[in-house]
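Just wondering, does anyone understand what follows?

——
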Amino acid sequence: MSGSRSRRVAVVVIAVLVAATCVNLGLWQLRRLDERRALNARILDRQSATPISIEGVLGNGAAEPYRPATAQGTYDVEHEVLVYGRSLDGEAGHHVVTPLLLPGGGAILVVRGWVPFAMQAAPVRGAPPPANEVRVKGFLAPDEGDGSVGPDADGIIRVLDVRGIASSLPYDVFPLPLQLVDQTPPQPGSLPIPVPPPELSEGPHLSYAIQWFSFAVIALVGAVILLRRDRRAATGAP
């Protein structure tokens, strides 16, 4: 096989391999897009469901993340924790999580809201909850941990690990946290600021898929251009 022919074969093989890899990566991004759309649809379906009432730590089969829920009880401020490093409108801070003692026994962790980064210990002195019984409206948030992370001596925890937080509490805890949207009576001060529900987006998967498919086309077109130049050089054509 001549050197020119070997180069052409190598160009074709490399172009096909690169194009195939890019196409597979593009298809993978499209699968990720389908998964994100399916997740968004499930979240929207749960958000539109009838609110459930949290009356005890056993819960019920309807206790799913993003399901609207209500709970009534009194806050256990002494066992409050801060979930470290959560931003709001681009400003660094933490989420204040306070157990709400339920009349039926046990508690549910309430994500009461966001406080600035300067507040570095729990209980947060500048963001106390109402002292008496409250009624909290919100939605069930996902449990971010597996029970392996617990709060430190300052009440700081890196993720919202329900079982990890519960391991330091003297009572049972509902398996999902409740993210506060409204509360009666309201907060006595301006902090913490309630955290809005997560924004549902499709992410960058579609644009990434288009980019990978574009790279595949570029690889094939580039190979054709190289082959034509090599053939013209071999034949002496202008």
Q: What stands out?
A: The chain has three helices and eight strands.
